[in-house]
Amino acid sequence: MSHIEIKKEFLEQARELWPELEWITDVELREQTTQTWALALQKSVLTPNDLNTIPFTLLCGPDLKVTFMGHKRAVVHIAKDCGDQMNKFFKIDLPVDMDVLIAGAILADVGKLLEYELKDGKAVQGAYGKYLRHPFSGVSLAEMCHVPASVCHIIATHAGEGNMVKRSTEAYVVHHADFMTFEPFRERLKL
User: Fold this and answer.
1) What angle do CA 160, 162, 166 make, to 5 degrees?
2) pLDDT (tens digit, 9 = 90+) per residue, 140-183?
3) What pTM was computed for the model?
4) β-pairing, 122-125 with 116-119?
């Protein structure tokens, strides 16, 4: 793989968006995760301000005020808390690699930055997103930044596409953290 040029401003934006990057103890993985978000920001029409104002899903109506970043950060926090508890109770039989879990949770929806476009100030599915959903574009971005396969697996399997393969323990945690913070909204709003 060739080296990708990522502008410093996008690395700074990624770090500002994601204080949870500091939870990743493996310095190389933390940097790969940061670079993936920075690359997505560099390629996207969306700005950090957009991510803090647009709804977390294109399926919600105007009444839902949960932002993209609000949802994403909640997923990361829930996944971390779950992983901590699993390690507390099941460490010997079902250990959770917390660095992989946190990196995967942070990167799960990074591909949405390529999937979405803005039209009249609202996020909509763009031309790219009509062909490639965010699990695919997210893995592509992550691989460009040399993110390990164990984390790319989480990106690839966190959504419905993952129902076709065997998920790792960390991928199950991220998948359920994501859906438990989406399905109740869908039910409430009958999306």
Assistant:
1) 145
2) 999 999 999 999 999 999 988 888 899 999 999 999 999 898 87
3) 0.93
4) antiparallel
